[in-house]
């Protein structure tokens, strides 16, 4: 009796345990369960503790709500140009509706795989091999769009589709390898040619610059050598021309030059010219006293020729000394011109009398005379230009500032004559030699004649007199 009661109690306890186990379920995180009651959908149960009615409610297999990655095996696909390529794909998807994923599709993973294969064949079948190899992003976008349209009603969202590899046939791979090798060789050849071109251009440019510099250096050297030779020839010519050598000196120089002709290792024979005898006779006659026998001239003729030559030498030396004196006297001329310009500028009648409107121009000429023409390379002030400048200053001086008024001479004429070096070979200085009539100045330049200058009468000279001299002002 006791044993039977114990067995019943144990059976009741086992039944209670079984009921508790079937009625209490725990769903982990990121999982979702579907509860069916008597075979019909009851509810979608999320993570946590779930109580079920024993023998009435049933929990279907849990669904993973995380994003899943499924890699499919390579699929053969035919392109538009009838080439079979093998394509590996990877699909990223996630369950968004557990009820639809459970009741709308039997095996959603297999369904996604088959749908990816068919969609990939449709997309790649309308493309050439080269476009398929270079348009992976476009293929991925088209696949994702087509899969999303179909898997949306399954409660699945396709995140993205990636192509792992596109493998053409082996023959195509060999052809592509050859093409890529040829392209690399072509680029290498182009780069090599560009480098050679640049190197040749730089080398030619350097050679051109070097040739230009060398040519400029040679040209400069030739110019300097030619200038030096010309200067040497000019110096020798001037020395010979100034000395006026006679037949004796020429004969002596001729005899000195003849031995130079025999120098040299290549000279094996020396032909004496026919003029050697005449030169020797002239030389021996000059130093032996028999001049008449050498050149057929008498001693009186030779003496007259020597005297004429000495006279020419003396005249040339005097001319050079006179030129040197003129060059040394130019500073004194410039000072005299500056003094005359200062005297004319110090008067107050410049702005009152029309005759002195050109005083500023004369002052500018005086300043140019002081500086030698305004530049280092300007020509020097010669005697004629200095005289003309002094004459214009004298003509422009006002009557009040001229102490020589009434004497018929221009202002500063004495000082100008003292400042200028005297040359006995030139005519006497006449400041009024080229002076025009004041009335002509009125007609030609629009100026008024100075006060005290009478108008010319018929039959008179350009200065109002018969002698052509300007009248005395006073």
TrEMBL record:
CDD domains for this protein: SPFH_paraslipin
InterPro entries: Band7/mec-2_domain, Band_7, Band_7/SPFH_dom_sf, Band_7/stomatin-like_CS, Stomatin_HflK_fam
Ranges of Basic and acidic residues composition bias in the record: 294-326, 350-368, 379-394
Main location: membrane
UniProt record similarity statement: Belongs to the band 7/mec-2 family.
Annotated region (Disordered), positions in chain: 287-474
Lineage: Bacteria, Bacillati, Actinomycetota, Actinomycetes, Micrococcales
Chain intervals with Polar residues compositional bias: 415-425
GO cellular component, one term: side of membrane
Compartments where located: Membrane
Key words, A-Z: Hydrolase, Membrane, Protease, Transmembrane, Transmembrane helix
Full protein name: Regulator of protease activity HflC (Stomatin/prohibitin superfamily)
A Pfam family per the record: Band_7
Membrane topology of the entry: Single-pass membrane protein
Organism whose genome encodes this protein: Nesterenkonia xinjiangensis
Low complexity: compositionally biased ranges: 332-346, 435-450
Biological processes, Gene Ontology terms: proteolysis
Matching PROSITE patterns: BAND_7
Domain Band: from-to ranges: 22-180
A GO MF term: peptidase activity
């Amino acid at each position: 009796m006791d044993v039977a009661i114990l067995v019943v109690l144990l059976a009741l306890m086992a039944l209670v345990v079984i009921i508790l186990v079937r009625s209490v379920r725990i769903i982990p995180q990121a999982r979702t369960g579907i509860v069916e009651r008597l075979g019909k959908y009851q509810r979608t149960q999320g993570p946590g503790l779930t109580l079920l009615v024993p023998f009435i409610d049933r929990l279907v297999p849990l669904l993973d709500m995380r994003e899943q990655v499924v890699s499919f095996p390579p699929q053969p696909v035919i392109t538009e140009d009838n080439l079979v390529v093998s394509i590996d794909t990877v699909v990223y998807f996630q369950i968004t509706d557990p009820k639809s994923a459970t009741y709308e599709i039997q095996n959603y993973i297999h369904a996604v795989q088959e749908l990816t294969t068919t969609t990939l064949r449709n997309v790649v079948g309308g493309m050439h091999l080269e476009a398929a190899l270079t348009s992976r992003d476009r293929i991925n976008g088209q696949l994702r769009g087509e899969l999303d349209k179909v898997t949306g009603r399954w409660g699945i969202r396709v995140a993205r589709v990636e192509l792992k590899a596109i493998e053409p046939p082996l023959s195509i791979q060999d052809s592509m390898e050859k093409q890529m090798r040829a392209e690399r060789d072509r680029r290498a050849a182009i780069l090599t040619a560009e480098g050679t071109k640049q190197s040749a251009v730089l080398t030619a440019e350097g050679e051109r610059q070097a040739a230009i510099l060398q040519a400029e250096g040679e040209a400069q050297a030739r110019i300097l050598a030619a200038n030096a030779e010309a200067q040497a020839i000019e110096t020798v010519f001037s020395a010979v021309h100034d000395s006026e050598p006679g037949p004796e000196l020429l004969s002596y120089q001729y005899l000195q030059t003849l031995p130079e002709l025999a120098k040299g290792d290549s000279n094996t024979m020396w032909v004496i010219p026919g003029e050697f005898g005449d030169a020797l006779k002239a030389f021996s006659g000059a130093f032996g006293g028999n001049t008449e026998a050498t050149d057929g001239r008498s001693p009186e003729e030779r003496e007259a020729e020597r005297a004429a030559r000495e006279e020419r030498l003396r005249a040339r030396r005097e001319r050079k000394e006179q030129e040197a004196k003129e060059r040394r006297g130019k500073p004194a001329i410039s000072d005299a011109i500056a003094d005359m310009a200062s005297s004319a500028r110090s008067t107050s009648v410049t702005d009152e009398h029309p005759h002195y409107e050109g005083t500023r121009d004369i002052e500018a000429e005086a300043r140019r005379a002081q500086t030698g023409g305004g530049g280092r390379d300007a020509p020097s002030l010669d005697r004629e230009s200095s005289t003309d400048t002094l004459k214009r200053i004298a003509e422009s001086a006002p009557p009040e500032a001229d102490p020589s008024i009434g004497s018929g001479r221009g202002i500063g004429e004495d000082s100008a004559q003292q400042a200028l070096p005297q040359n006995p070979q030139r005519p006497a200085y006449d400041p009024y030699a080229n002076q025009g009539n004041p009335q002509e100045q009125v007609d030609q330049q629009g100026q008024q004649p100075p006060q005290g200058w009478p108008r010319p009468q018929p039959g008179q000279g350009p200065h109002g007199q018969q002698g052509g001299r300007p009248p005395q002002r006073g």
